[in-house]
Amino acid sequence: MSRIITVGAAQLGAIQRAEDRLSVVERMLALMENAHRKGVNLIVFPELALTTFFPRWYMEDQDEVDTWFESAMPSNETQPLFEAAKRHGMGFHLGYAEKIQENGETHRYNTAIIVDKAGNIVGKYRKIHLPGHDEFDPKRTFQHLEKRYFEIGNLGFNVWRSMGGILGMCICNDRRWPETFRCLGLQGVEMVVLGYNTPTTNSQSNESPHLRWFHNLLSMQAAAYQNSTWVVGVAKAGNEDGNELMGGTSIISPNGEIVAQCHTTGDELVVADCDLDDCNFGKQTVFDFKRHRRIEHYGRITSQTGVTLPE
Ligand code: CDT
Predict the structure, then answer these.
(1) pLDDT tier at 31 (50, 70, 90 boundaries)?
(2) For the CA of 216, the nearest atom of ligand 1
(3) Structural domain harbouring 242
(4) How far apart (Å, rounded) are the C-alpha atoms in residues 164 and 176?
(5) Atom of ligand 1 at shortest range from CA of 47
(6) What is the tens place of the pLDDT at every residue in 158-215?
(7) Which terminus of the chain has a lower count of CB atoms within 10 Å, N or C?
(8) CA of 141 to the centre of ligand 1 (A)
(9) pLDDT at 1 over 80
(10) Stated pTM of the model
(11) What CATH number has the domain bearing residue 78?
(12) Residue 198 alpha carbon to ligand 1 centre in Å
């Protein structure tokens, strides 16, 4: 038996601050065309895929901040992606900045969706592990103001039955946290799709680009193995107005091995046939959670945030 999703990991190269959504969507449509020719069923785009990575810019004017957000999905600019999904019979994953009215209040989230082959939004996730800071930090070589512009996601870690499997989502910094993937693993996830915008350098240290690349892959490969799930991690890469973002877009098997990887920092598509039944062995043996998890010893994980040192 096999249950194959042909996945296209659609890395986007740099998006400059002045580049508008129409031009980005054109680039994404070209990647979808290419993916269709390669038989892709599900194409995965990065975090905040429609614009430059705006949290690097300090802004005080909320009207200016709001220019980076979508208040409808689909919007006029993104409608062609939904039409291409229907035309090609191809699902897609998209990250964007979401502005929404709920109970008479405005909320802003770093959001991702899964859209099915019929062009319907079947899943939504709002980023929970927001990195960075909320005020201008003069000590940093560049800013990372996600905590200023977004609220912590309020939808939790969920999975959805779609494309013949059990799909989950997280966003960028979430991938560094094993709790993210274990919450998805406990719901039987078979493929986690995620996008990232990760600077090549650390704004607070001289950490090497090599080490940052390693941490990116280490997190995703370990998560794939430890939860016996496919992981598709897709970068927005390249030089955005003088700020370097790493590439390294990868499709990772439930054994934790990379089966396809981008090698540029531009718009690039890599494709892999991902058999969801490859998840079964790990889930039934070493990571059979029901048999082997010892929750009576895991209390600290949900009752404590900071470290408690011994006396
Ligand atoms: N977008 C995002 O979450 N970026 C962060 C940068 C933090 S640097 C450790 C990331 O985890 O890649």
Answers:
(1) very high
(2) 12
(3) 4-303
(4) 27
(5) 1
(6) 999 999 999 999 999 999 999 999 999 999 999 999 999 999 999 999 999 999 999 9
(7) C
(8) 15
(9) no
(10) 0.98
(11) 3.60.110.10
(12) 5
